[in-house]
Write a structure and sequence with these properties.
Blueprint (H helix, E strand, L loop, with lengths): L1 H9 L3 H40 L3 E5 H6 L8 H10 L3 E14 L2 E10 L1 H7 L6 E4 L5 E3 L9 E7 L1 H7 L6 E7 L5 E12 L4 H6 E5 H8 L7 E5 L6 H18 L3 H4 L4 E5 H4 L1 H39 L1 H9 L4 H36 L2 E2 L8 E3 L2 E3 L2 E2 L5 H23 L7 H5 L1
Length: about 425
């Protein structure tokens, strides 16, 4: 009977109830959409870090991590050992620095050498070419009378290409100091220009093959960095720990004491490498429901106002119910049932609205390419111009629980007034 009466009373003032439902449903829908957008941004940034640039795990010598020591290489035997030991995908990289010149223009450059075949198994950096093609192999030097003379193709950053005023097909001269102390120099053909991926690389980056940098720097003893790709569903911390054990075991088996005493080989995850971004993403996850709770809390003020007006208008009815023997707490329970039904209807309406728009954002996203054609850099990680959402059912379930809880707490204050009513004074 109380359930029937509570549901009937809910619609005695339809306009007021609809306005309250609209406020609560709107707050819940905003919370679901906000959660979808924040989770989508986090997912995009993580995918960019792991799939395009950094990879899931990286292996370096500690001295290279500390000051990018060009001599801090790891032997190729380590790569062979890990490929036999684990089913992960590995991609070696070498780095260097020098001076790049084209025509009368020159600037400092950063060299990044990869194995194109292995790199494509770990990251998608070669798929992000804006102009030309990602050809890092040997090409015929068309201007030379010697048909045996060949040069290597390179891919450079977009801002570097703009600064040097070069485009695909132009030549780039690179001068650097080789590891043996001599002056290394070479002529390269620009085969492509990358889209903006990392700010530093965009301004100074030159992507080349490992044989190209070996011939330029006379650096053939090993590699500086080993990028590792694992299954995204795998436990990152556990995989990092097991890989570190493999590396330590290899060092012990090969009696490489210089890697153990003061300069160990270190395995780091992408969260270790870009810790500021990882912390920011963790904070975002933590404050999602805080901000959502604030949104719903503000909307719940409408619930409080509705219940205050409903109780005030029906004070005489409550007095009669108390006079004929209805218990005070049964009266309180009936009023709380009205609040619960109001919250439940709001949850259904807000949930459907939030789910519908979230699924739209997950598929089409918010296109910001008009104002941010190349995306925006956040702590060294690119946030792409099309902001895609990432919808999870948990966001709806938790949002509904938060909304009903806050709404019921908000309605408890005016509902408690029914317990203190005095029938004799009300019915006088």
């Amino acid at each position: 009977m109380l359930i029937f009466i509570a549901w009937r009373n809910l619609w005695r003032n339809r306009i007021r109830s609809i306005l309250t439902i609209s406020a609560l449903a709107g707050g819940l829908a905003l919370m679901i959409v906000y959660t979808t957008l924040i989770q989508g941004m986090s997912k995009q940034m993580i995918n960019f870090a792991t799939n395009i640039s950094i990879g899931h795990l990286q292996i370096h010598r500690q001295s290279y991590i500390n000051d990018q020591d060009i001599y801090a290489t790891m032997p190729w035997d380590l790569l062979s050992y890990l490929e036999k030991k684990r089913e992960y995908k590995f991609a070696p990289r070498l780095y260097g620095a020098g001076l790049g010149a084209a025509g009368k223009l020159s600037t400092g450059i950063m060299l990044k050498a990869i194995d194109p075949e292995k790199e494509q198994q770990v990251t998608t950096i070669l798929n992000h070419v804006r102009m030309g093609k990602a050809d890092l192999g040997q090409v015929q030097h068309a201007d030379s009378s010697d048909p045996a003379l060949v040069i290597y193709g390179v891919v450079i950053g977009a801002q570097l290409a703009k600064n040097l005023k070069i485009s695909p097909g132009d030549e780039l001269i690179i001068i650097t100091q080789a590891v043996d102390g001599s002056i290394g120099n070479g002529l390269f053909r620009v085969s492509g220009i990358l889209k903006p991926i990392e700010p530093n690389f965009d301004r100074t980056g030159v992507l080349m093959s490992i044989p190209a940098i070996q011939s330029l720097l006379y650096l053939e003893n090993g590699f500086h960095e080993l990028v590792v790709s694992i299954n995204e569903k795998d436990d990152l911390i556990e995989r990092k720990k097991s890989l570190q054990e493999d590396v330590s075991q290899w060092s012990k088996d090969n009696e490489i004491t210089k890697y153990k005493n003061g300069d160990p080989i270190v395995v780091r995850s992408w969260r270790d490498i870009v810790s500021s971004i990882a912390d920011m993403l963790d904070i975002n996850e933590s404050i999602i429901y805080v901000i959502g709770g604030i949104m719903i809390g503000l909307a719940s003020l409408g619930m409080m106002n509705t219940m205050l007006m409903a109780i005030h208008e029906r004070t005489h009815e409550f007095g009669i119910l108390l006079s004929i023997g209805m218990g005070r707490f049964w009266l309180l329970f009936m009023v709380l049932l009205e609040s619960f039904f109001l919250s439940l209807v709001s949850a259904i309406a807000g949930g459907l609205l939030g789910i519908g728009y979230s699924l739209y954002l997950e598929r089409y996203g918010i296109d910001l390419s008009g104002s941010l054609p190349d995306g925006v850099d956040i702590g060294g990680i690119l946030w792409e111009p099309v902001w895609l959402g990432s919808f999870t059912p948990d966001s709806v379930f938790i949002g509904i629980i938060i909304m009903i809880s806050i709404a019921m707490l908000a309605s408890l204050i005016p509902s408690w007034r029914t317990v203190r009513l005095k029938p004799a004074e009300i019915t006088r």
